Automatic annotation (TrEMBL):
Residues 46-139 form the Methyltransferase domain. It holds the Pfam family Methyltransf_25. Keywords: Methyltransferase, Transferase. This is phosphoethanolamine N-methyltransferase.
Length: 270
C-alpha cells in the first residue's frame, strides 16, 4: 500500500490524490455536495481519516470546533499543513490509521473519504470497531467509497484497492456490536443516510461512488423481534434469501417488496 501511494504522491497534487485527470473539476462540484450531507458540526471534535492534501480539511475546520487530520503519506500531510495550518483549531498527524489510538468516546464526528476500500475485510472489521470506540454515543461516522470498480482514469500498475459492493459495506458496518462502556452496554452503527455521489453520476455516468452516514447507537437485544437493530431484522428475516424466494413464488420473479409494484420497481432499479 505504501509503495502504491509513494508512486502517486510525489507532487502532492489533487490529481494524484484522486487518481483522476479531472480532479479539480470534480472537486468543484463534489465538495459542496458532500458537505451538504454532513450533520451540524458546530463545536464538534472531528477526526478526518485519510485526509490527503486537505481537500476537505479546510471546509471542516470552518464548520467544527477542532479537526484532527490524519494521513499516512508525509507529502500529503505537509501539503495539508501548508494550506490549512493557519487555523488554530487544527491538528495534523502522519499515521497509519489502522495503528492509530484515540481516547474512547472522545470524538463527535469521523469523516473518511476513499479510505476503507484500501483495507482488507479483517482490517476493516477491526478498524470499524476502533472507530466505534472513539465516537461518543450519538456520534456520527461519514464515509465515501468506490464500489464495484475504480473511478479514476490514472493508469496504475499495482492496484491494492478492494472494490466492495454496497451490500458488503452495509453488512460489515451494521452487523458488529462493541462494548465500549463500563457496565456492558453494547453499541452498533445504524445507517442514517446512504446515497450515490451525484457529481459522479452527472459528470462521469458513474453510479458506484457511494457515501454513508452512520450513527453510533446503543444495542438492546430483543427490541426488534429478537434482532438487535431494524437493519439486522431486514437483512436476516424480512429480506433474507428465503423470504425473497417466498415473495417471488407468490408475486413473480423479481418481486422483493410487500409495498407493491411501485416500491419493487424502485428497489430493483436503484
Amino acid at each position: 500500500m505504501r509503495e502504491f501511494w509513494k508512486e502517486h504522491s510525489k507532487d502532492a497534487t489533487v490529481e494524484e490524490m484522486m487518481l483522476d485527470s479531472r480532479a479539480k473539476e470534480l472537486t468543484q462540484h463534489e465538495l459542496p455536495e458532500i458537505l451538504s450531507l454532513l450533520p451540524c458540526l458546530t463545536g464538534s471534535r472531528v477526526l478526518e481519516l485519510g485526509a490527503g492534501i486537505g481537500r476537505y480539511t479546510g471546509s471542516l475546520l470552518t464548520l467544527a470546533g477542532h479537526v484532527t487530520a490524519v494521513d499516512f503519506m508525509e507529502s500529503f500531510v505537509e501539503r495539508n499543513r501548508q494550506d490549512n495550518g493557519h487555523h488554530s483549531n487544527a491538528t495534523f498527524l502522519q499515521a497509519d490509521v489502522t495503528k492509530l489510538d484515540m481516547p474512547k468516546n472522545s470524538i463527535d464526528f469521523i469523516f473518511s473519504n476513499w479510505l476503507l476500500m484500501y483495507l482488507t475485510d479483517e482490517e476493516l472489521k477491526s478498524f470499524a470497531e476502533k472507530m466505534m470506540g472513539w465516537l461518543r454515543p450519538g456520534g456520527f461516522l461519514f464515509f465515501r467509497e468506490s464500489c464495484n470498480h475504480r473511478s479514476g482514469d490514472f493508469k496504475r500498475g499495482l492496484n491494492p484497492t478492494c472494490y466492495r459492493t454496497e451490500a458488503q459495506y452495509n453488512h460489515l458496518m451494521t452487523s458488529m456490536e462493541v462494548d465500549v462502556q463500563e457496565g456492558g452496554q453494547m453499541f452498533g452503527f445504524d445507517i442514517v443516510l446512504k446515497k450515490k455521489v451525484q457529481t459522479y453520476v452527472q459528470m462521469k455516468n458513474n453510479q458506484n461512488q457511494i457515501c454513508w452516514l452512520l450513527e453510533k447507537v446503543p444495542r438492546s437485544p430483543g427490541t426488534q423481534n429478537g434482532f438487535n437493530s431494524f437493519q439486522q431484522f431486514l437483512d436476516n428475516q424480512q429480506y433474507s434469501n428465503r423470504s425473497i424466494l417466498r415473495y417471488e413464488k407468490m408475486f413473480g420473479a423479481g418481486y422483493v417488496s410487500t409495498g407493491g409494484p411501485s416500491t419493487t420497481k424502485e428497489f430493483v432499479t436503484c
